[in-house]
Prior knowledge:
Layout: E1 2-6, H1 11-22, E2 26-31, H2 34-44, E3 51-55, E4 69-72, H3 82-99, E5 106-109, H4 136-151, E6 157-161, E7 164-166, H5 174-181, E8 184-188, E9 194-195, E10 197-199, H6 200-212, H7 214-217, E11 221-223, E12 230-231, H8 232-243, E13 248-252, H9 254-265, H10 268-273, H11 279-285, E14 289-290, H12 295-301, H13 309-315
Parallel strand pairs: 1-2, 1-4, 2-3, 4-5, 5-6, 6-11, 7-10, 8-13, 9-14
Antiparallel strand pairs: 9-12
Helix pairs in contact: 3-4, 5-8, 8-13, 9-11
Amino acid sequence: MVFLLTGATGFVGRNYLLRMLDRGWRVFAPVRDAGKLRRQLAAERVDTSRLTPIPADPRRWPDISHIDAAVHIAGVLFARDLDAYVETNVEWTEAVLRALPRGCPMVILSSQSAGGPTPEGKISRDEDMPDIPVSFYGESKLRMERLVRRDYEGMPIAILRPPMVIGPRDTAIEQLFRMARSPVRFKPGLKPKTLSFIACEDLLDAIDVALTNSDKLKHRPYYVASRQTFTDAELIQTAASHLRRRGITVTLPDPLVRLLSRTVDASPVLRAGFPSLTVDRVRELGAERWVVNPSAFESLTQWYAKCTLAQAIASVSVFG
């Protein structure tokens, strides 16, 4: 099998790349920094003989007309304005699509943020509900989905919308573990927030299943998630229990969180250390329920998430 995989140096993409290489597949990986990719894989001690890093710009790609499938995971998670999100999440995605063979099966990773929070009075959000993103990030992902559905109808493309992803090699979750280690933990917002999640291993399985069903799933985004939900306080407590640390959780009023987000946004150093506290991502913290219903994808593919929250947290061994 020959694949094109974007996002190979990121969290989910790197985990999927390792799965591909372990299976003996040949992989073309568009990256901005081939050296970074090779350093990451050197630490994993895997055979990279079937990996070919290629330029991020699709206009500079070698001939890929022979690939069997493509998985598009790359995207900007944290930016300061909509244009910065759109440049990668929409415009670069379109450039990738234009460069692919027309009949190539493909999975595109979008986000729960494209749909927005669970509507008031509902237990969970499903694919039939109107999309109302509340952040620039979510808006960019929704624009990307609409582009795919409008301009690439003839391609067998499956779009997946995962919620929070937890698993190994997730450097972004370091903030949670730092908080869990402290005897005093600070939780944004006075009211509890109920959340969906998916373990990285379950998401990789969903990508595999979506690839084999891309003709059946094409041109409609699907939520993929665990059936287990949790509150933001329970997430902190689960991480603390894994680390065997005790402490108390202090809630921060929403106005204070918004003030902190403006401070973080003004400092590149703080943005790097606390990416989920930028002004744009704090917009998502205002909603009290981010729960999605994966029934449609489950019914069509017989895929089901298997990992519990505790198992997903335990898999983040690099910080455990």
